Structure of Pyridoxamine 5'-phosphate oxidase family protein:
Amino acid sequence: MGTPGIAHREVPERRHDTLERLATERDIWVSTAHPDHGPHQVPLWFWWDGRAVRMCTGATSATARNVREEPRVRLALPDTSDVVLVQGEAECFPDQDVPDDAANGFAGKFGWDPRTEDGPFLYVRVEPKTVRAWRGEPELRGRVIMRDGVWLG
């Protein structure tokens, strides 16, 4: 049974569409897990720097605690009819140690610079290792568009 009105895209078109969404969207769902506290999922603002997803969260948040203990994460763009799932490992930077280009890119996109806030923040960088993208059932086959950090197609 097919999904009406959905045309199958080949991998190069899916990659193009995924990169466009990463460059333009604001929110991404971040899924983490902690060995003692279990799974945790939150939406965060993000900036795509062309190679990695850059996010920022409070330094004492559950997300920050989790990625310090278990850096493997899954990210998802928030559209169930145009799914993009990203898997990778989180690299963490306290706000005083974040590279200027990353902090400035994030601040430039949102008009908000966490480094100027009173509380401590943690910047999180996730370079994709696996990316899956699909629009409905016709695209389930071939949904992996990046494997082992290499874009396919």
User: Anything to note?
Assistant: The chain has a mean pLDDT of 94. The chain is about 20% helix and 40% strand. Helices lie at 11-24, 62-69, 100-110. The first strand starts at residue 27 and ends at 34.
